[in-house]
């Protein structure tokens, strides 16, 4: 119910701001001062009534753009104090544009409505934020975008899907595709995925599904269909991908490449390289590692509200030579309750 409360709050604020706008319009239209409606009265001391030139528009527009660019990082930090500071930055250039010519109550009404619209947008951003762009994993020439790419998309690019059997046979990894533990999916829309989202972490050898190409296990995956109905496996979106020490030697041997947001996962994963690629999204990194378990990069794409938007997480583990030992890319889809 939490997501519905947040959406309801944003809708309520929208109705309130619309009501305030109509209230100002009604008041200025009905209020009469010195025989004239307030909406027709002059509201500043400027006497110039000629049209503004392109140069003036460019000047004032540049000032407003600079102000907007200045307040974006301020708003991203949240807090009522930062919201007040943002208003103090954006209002002067707007008022300078407004007072550049003689204005009537109609112009003031337009400014008020624009300000209310800006306030609503700012409040909505503070409450629910904006969605994050899903990260992309490129396997050779195929792009896998979690929560976007479907199983069918991967199959069209020549990948096979193997499904873990419930009554599996414990086997060596070298026999994972031939022991009966996994069965190749025949792509006949015979497998339906239940209407639920699972957020788990698996090793490749215990993943519910394997992504395979030319007999090589590319990685383990998890999928999600729909919140209201069962969906054929082909139409399900991939929500989780894992690569680990079990299948790393095989993919290296077959010259399969992995590019994660532009980072070659088989290159030297130095802190400088990873930090340059992910910036503030990099929240976990080894500062003073005391064991191999500390050699890990944690990357997250978090939002202001995980009740509304998807969130994404990745863990890249490596050894003392900065070579990858495992890679996980997962997602968190908002729950329905």
TrEMBL record:
The keyword Transmembrane applies. It comes from the Bacteria. Keywords: Membrane, Transmembrane, Transmembrane helix. The chain crosses the membrane at residues 6-27, 57-75, 81-100, 107-128. This is Uncharacterized protein.
């Amino acid at each position: 119910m939490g997501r519905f409360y947040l959406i309801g709050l944003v809708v309520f604020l929208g109705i309130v701001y619309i009501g305030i706008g109509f209230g100002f319009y009604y008041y200025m239209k009905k209020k009469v001062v010195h025989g004239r409606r307030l909406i027709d009265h002059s509201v500043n001391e400027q006497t110039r009534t000629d049209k503004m030139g392109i140069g003036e528009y460019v000047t004032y527009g540049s000032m407003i753009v600079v102000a907007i660019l200045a307040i974006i990082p301020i708003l991203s930090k949240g807090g009522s104090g930062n919201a007040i500071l943002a208003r103090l930055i954006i209002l002067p250039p707007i008022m300078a544009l407004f007072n550049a010519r003689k204005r009537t109550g109609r112009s003031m009404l337009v400014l008020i409505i624009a300000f209310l619209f800006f306030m609503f947008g700012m409040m909505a951003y503070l409450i629910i934020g904006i969605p994050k762009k899903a990260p992309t994993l490129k396997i050779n020439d195929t792009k896998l975008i979690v929560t976007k790419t479907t199983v069918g998309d991967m199959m069209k690019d020549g990948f096979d899907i193997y499904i873990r059997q419930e009554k599996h046979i414990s086997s060596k990894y070298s026999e994972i595709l031939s022991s009966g533990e996994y069965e190749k999916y025949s792509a006949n829309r015979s497998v339906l995925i239940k209407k639920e989202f699972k957020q788990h972490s698996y090793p490749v050898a215990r993943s519910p599904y394997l992504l395979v190409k030319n007999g090589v296990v590319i990685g383990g995956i998890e999928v999600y269909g729909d919140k209201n109905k069962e969906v054929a496996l082909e139409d399900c979106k991939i929500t989780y991908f894992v690569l680990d020490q079990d299948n790393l030697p095989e993919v290296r041997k077959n010259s399969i490449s992995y590019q994660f947001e532009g980072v070659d996962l088989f290159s030297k994963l130095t802190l400088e390289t990873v930090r340059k690629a992910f910036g503030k999204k990099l929240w976990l990194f080894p500062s003073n590692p005391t064991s191999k378990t500390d050699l890990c990069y944690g990357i997250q794409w978090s939002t202001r509200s995980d009740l509304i938007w998807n969130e994404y997480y990745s863990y890249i583990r490596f050894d003392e030579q900065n070579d990858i030992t495992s890679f996980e890319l997962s997602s968190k889809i908002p729950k329905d309750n």
